[in-house]
Amino acid sequence: MNKGSRGLFLMLVIAVFSLSAVTVFSQEKDKKEEENKKKETFTAVVVGTGGGIGARTMNLNIYINSYTSDQEVQEYLTVLKEKGQDELRRMLEKVEVGRIAPAAGVGVDLAIARSFQTPEGRVVRVGTLRPMSFLELYRGGRSTNYPFTFVELRLDQEGKGEGSILGGTQVKFNKEGQLELESYGNQYAKLSNVKAWD
Questions:
Q1: 51 and 198 in contact (C-beta within 8 Å)?
Q2: pTM score, whole prediction
Q3: Planar angle of CA 40, 42, 46, nearest 5 degrees
Q4: In angstroms, how far is the first alpha carbon of the chain from the final one?
Q5: Which residue among 61, 62, 102, 158 has its CA within the 20 to 30 Å range from the CA of 115?
Q6: Residue 139: which pLDDT band, with cuts at 50, 70 and 90?
Q7: Which helix (H) or strand (E) holds 138?
Q8: What are phi and psi of 106, to 5 degrees?
Q9: For 32, what's the count of Cα atoms within 13 Å in the CB-facing half-sphere?
Q10: Cβ neighbour number for residue 127 with a 10 Å cutoff
Q11: pLDDT digits (tens, 9 = 90+) for 52-83
């Protein structure tokens, strides 16, 4: 993975609340569950950096209907660790938390959506299953081992900012038990003019 790709943090790597903490702070749990149901829209301009994406630009819309809970993320990580990426992909095929689409296109469903507050503002991370053509699946080449696309939005206090996309991505645990991301053909792009809409 190149230097730019390393800058895209995998949204699956999060701190999960312990059962005791969730039980004690039931009000915080209720508040978080309510936030998870919040619908949001984000717009951005994709700026290609070469590689598999090329030096192109396009407008992008991200629609989030609900956010993925800590418990769901933990379940996904467990499936990935115990059964591998293929089983995780099959599991996420049944999940739909929103949609990501070019401004003039239909797009694809989101399987994962996360939101975090930081001292600088807010970080939103989403993941989707990469669409594969019949020909790609029929040939069964190396590219089919890279079924995910991940997006990170970094927003300031006014809901504006930048971000990045890592397409054609493989996710796995290494021998040290750490999550690794690998992009097929350097499918990395930047996002500019990111904006959150009410």
A1: no
A2: 0.78
A3: 155
A4: 35
A5: 102
A6: low
A7: helix 134-139
A8: -80, -45
A9: 16
A10: 25
A11: 555 678 899 999 999 999 999 999 999 999 99
CA 50-179-88 angle, to 5 degrees, is 90
Q: Assess if residue 18 is contained within a domain.
A: no
Q: What are phi and psi of 44, to 5 degrees?
A: -160, 165
Could you tell me the two tokens for 1? Answer: 């993975």
Cα→Cα distances 79→3, 29, 86, 176, Å: 28, 24, 10, 17
Look at residue 40 and tell me if it is in a domain: yes
Establish if 190 belongs to a structural domain: yes
Domain membership of residue 54 (yes or no) is yes
Structure tokens at 131: 């669409």
Give the count of alpha carbons within 13 A of 52, CB side only. Answer: 14
- Per the structure, the count of domains in the chain is 1
